[in-house]
Write a structure and sequence with these properties.
With about 220 residues, this protein is of the alpha+beta class. It has eight helices and four strands; from the N terminus they run βαβαββαααααα. The model has no long low-confidence stretch (mean pLDDT about 95). The chain binds glutathione.
């Protein structure tokens, strides 16, 4: 039982976007009801609440908040639990930059690669192109990540909420496309990933992702 909020969040245990929000929820020790949706795109009742029909969506009374970044910012703006923002404007800018790089330039190619997991019928040209895009964007994160314990400012921030699921999927997806050691050439990110997993909220979500991933792979 955490801090009572009366909020609920439409969730999927395997969604990196929902995982991002769960890290913020757990770190803040908020009591938010999680409602798992198997097929948000075709769920009519969900579509009436959230026309974008994408997971996650937070519901706080009459306020409906879609998009993981907006949800995380909203939770922090509510002022419940620990703050997940640094105080210094330069550190806030770094936090937002890391989240933007991951959202715009990493999640995109990673999503494309996710669609190519099955080797049968794999589009090799697309895979090569998206691996190149992903590798390039990872060098940007390598440049900007602080650490080793946290992404910025020596404390858990919204940048960690973003990075932890992203790095989980990066590490999972590499070996599926012939990159047994995905962190080669990314020593700062590797050290960061090994350190941040010891944070209770990050560790909990990583365990949830691991379990959901194993369930998916088992069919
Ligand atoms: N930019 C969105 C992405 C959300 C998203 O793509 N969610 C996926 C689950 S991982 C989804 O609901 N897909 C269903 C669909 O696109 O129809 C965010 O940050 O929340």
């Amino acid at each position: 039982m955490g801090i009572p909020t009366g909020m609920k969040m439409y969730n999927s245990q395997l969604s990196p976007f929902a995982a991002r929000c769960r890290i913020a929820i757990y770190a803040k020790d908020l009591d938010v009801e999680l409602i798992d949706l198997a097929d948000p795109a075709h769920d009519e009742a969900f579509g009436r609440i959230a026309p974008m029909r994408k997971i996650p969506v937070l519901v706080d009374g009459g306020t409906v908040v879609p998009e993981s970044e907006t949800i995380c910012e909203y939770l922090d703006d509510k002022g419940l639990g620990v703050s997940l923002r640094p105080d210094d404007p330069a550190a806030i800018a770094r936090m937002r930059l890391i989240s933007r790089i991951a959202d715009l330039y990493v999640m995109d190619p990673m999503g494309e690669l996710f669609g190519q997991i099955n080797p049968a019928g794999r589009d090799q040209q697309l895979v090569a192109r998206e691996i190149a895009e992903l590798s390039k964007a990872m060098t940007w994160l390598e440049h900007y990540v602080g650490g080793p314990d946290f992404a910025v400012a020596g404390k858990l921030t919204l940048a960690d909420c973003e990075l932890v699921p992203v790095l989980f999927f990066f590490r999972e997806i590499g070996p599926m496309f012939g990159q047994a050691q995905p962190f080669v050439g990314l020593p700062r990110l590797e050290a960061y990933y090994n350190a941040i997993r010891r944070h209770p909220a990050a560790g909990k979500v990583l365990a949830e992702l691991d379990e959901a991933m194993k369930r998916m792979m088992a069919g």
